[in-house]
Amino acid sequence: MQLHSLSYMSSAVHLPTRDEIDRLLESSRRFNAQHLVTGVLFYSDGGFHQYLEGPLEGIERVYARVLASRMHHNIFELMREPIDVREFSDWSMGYRAVGVGPNDPVLDRMLGHEADGTSPGRMLLSAYWDKVVGHRVAVAAGRSGDGAR
Ligand SMILES: Cc1cc2nc3c(=O)[nH]c(=O)nc-3n(C[C@H](O)[C@H](O)[C@H](O)COP(=O)(O)O)c2cc1C
Description:
single chain, alpha+beta, 5-stranded mixed β-sheet, 4 helices, about 40% helix, binds flavin mononucleotide
């Protein structure tokens, strides 16, 4: 079975509560599992970045739900391509919000610190994480977004 991947980023329409995120994850995990889709979702201060992988039909069904969701807008597709292997075979939807400290084992797995090789999907996840974490640290340190971490 040929596998496909899809990655996008988007903006929340309003800052979601923990309850709203929990409901989103519960509904997503159920639907994704039914359609053999796995992946991860990052969230930070109103921004989402999601990586999905699975059979084309499953990806299309899940992405249709993503596009139809009223929780976010400005959905910007970053990547859509065939893949040979899954990166997250045991996660119907892994989740991390920016704010976890360093040495978080789930985050390490998401960013591929334990994986061999670097797929385009992993590179996007790492780039997004570096960007939002870099931005947060720069703001906290009172700098003006010079990209320092
Ligand atoms: C950032 C984001 C990621 C989502 N990811 C998935 C997903 O992986 N699988 C899925 O079935 N639905 C996904 N959805 C759709 C949610 O299941 C849906 O938004 C939620 O059930 C609430 O529905 P509503 O936005 O129409 O009120 C996602 C929605 C958002 C905003």
